Amino acid sequence: MMSNTPKKDPFRRLLIWTAALLVLAALFATGFVLMDKYQQGERARAVQRINEENQIIIEENMKLRAEQQAKLQTGEAKVWPEAKAEGWDVLDVSEFPLEPGREQAVTRAELLKGGLLLVNRWHPMPSDFTLVEADIKSVGTATSYRVPVADANVLLMDTAITPLDAMIAAAKAAGFEYYIAREGYRDAATQLGYWEKEVARYTARYSGDALTEKAREQVAYPGTSDYHTALSVNMDVYNRNDSVLNKMPFQESDQAKWLNEHAWEYGFVFRFPVQNYPDSQTIDKSYKTGIDLKINAYRYVGKPHAAVMHAMNFCLEEYIEYLIAHPHIAVYQDGILKYEIYRVPGGNTDTTIQLPNNAREYLASTDNMGSIVVAAIY
């Protein structure tokens, strides 16, 4: 008996599936084309929007520039004063804000080593100086004794040793040798020993505040000596084959004359000027430094600050006072901007400072008076 159920045609089913797939493929292709056109349209609209926004910015900048030019022509806009064409010139630009630039992270350790840490009878050492004590090195060892020293225990901050080495090398190249570094960093225990010995000399005649003031005439109170900063070095001359030179007071030597003329070029300044010392032209600054002694101490402050102090005949205390009164200065050499120096609050912790975008490098230091002094170097 034969079945009445019609047989399925496999070829026909294949045609149906093929047609369906072709329809789906066409739909997908159409959708892709439409989506691509949509995305192209979105990109075009985005480009147009960006171009329009950029054009608005350009027009606004051109408008602001035109307004600035108009103010310049009418004398309404203020501009930096013009520097001298020759020599060093320090201009007060405190009424002008620092140009927007980049941020630079600085650590408290970097600020302690930056050169302007002020330590004297009125400003004692900061308690966190221990952060950088490991960076105090033997001058002789660090320079392979290119800088002659009294012994291996003459110590300085690493940031001061390199410029000291360069300065002594330059002096030698100029024909001046036989320098010797007599003393550098003093720790608190050493200073205390000096202090107690000095106090003992006067205990029979003085007491209380009078005794303290008498002792201070010769020795800084522990914690207030500039030698604590590890940035000051006591210089002298010595040649084992020249007894005449060895007996000569340092400031009467040709070596001292060269040092006093050129030390600032390497970032060093004479630390304690007193009347007619280190030379006959020196004006007494003991009322600022608190030290009325003939000490051959040269203090590292960094090239930008030494240039200003040299040009304006400032001791360290006077320089910081000047920056308090004039917190933004521009330093020119032969009409070219060399340094931009500014004082801003802060510096007791790790922080950030603002730098002009075109500054090549910088120095940053705490002044131990609640502020940071930044020198942008061009």
Task: Report the principal-axis shape.
Answer: elongated
* Helix coverage percent: 25-40%
Question: Largest beta sheet: what is the strand line-up?
Answer: 1-9-10-13-12
Q: Predict the CATH topology of the largest domain.
A: Muramoyl-pentapeptide Carboxypeptidase, domain 2
Radius of gyration from CA coordinates: 36 Å
| Beta-strand residue percentage | 15-25%
Mean pLDDT across all amino acids: 89
Structure commentary:
The protein is an alpha+beta fold and 378 residues long. It has 3 domains: 19-77; 83-116 and 311-378, 2-Layer Sandwich (Phosphorylase Kinase, domain 1), CATH 3.30.200; 127-186 and 225-300, Muramoyl-pentapeptide Carboxypeptidase, domain 2. 40% of the residues lie in helices and 18% in strands. The protein contains 11 helices and 13 strands. The chain has helices at 10-74, 108-112, 139-142, 158-173, 188-200, 208-216, 243-247, 254-262, 286-289, 303-312, 316-325, and strands at residues 88-92, 102-106, 136-138, 155-157, 179-183, 232-237, 268-270, 297-300, 328-333, 336-345, 351-355, 361-366, 371-377. The chain has a 5-stranded antiparallel sheet. It has a 4-stranded antiparallel sheet with strand order 5-6-8-7. Strands 2-11 form a two-stranded antiparallel sheet. A hairpin with a 2-residue loop joins strand 9 (328-333) and strand 10 (336-345). The longest helix is centred in the first third of the chain and has 65 residues, at 10-74. It is elongated and about 130 Å long. It starts with 9 loop residues before the first helix and ends with a strand.
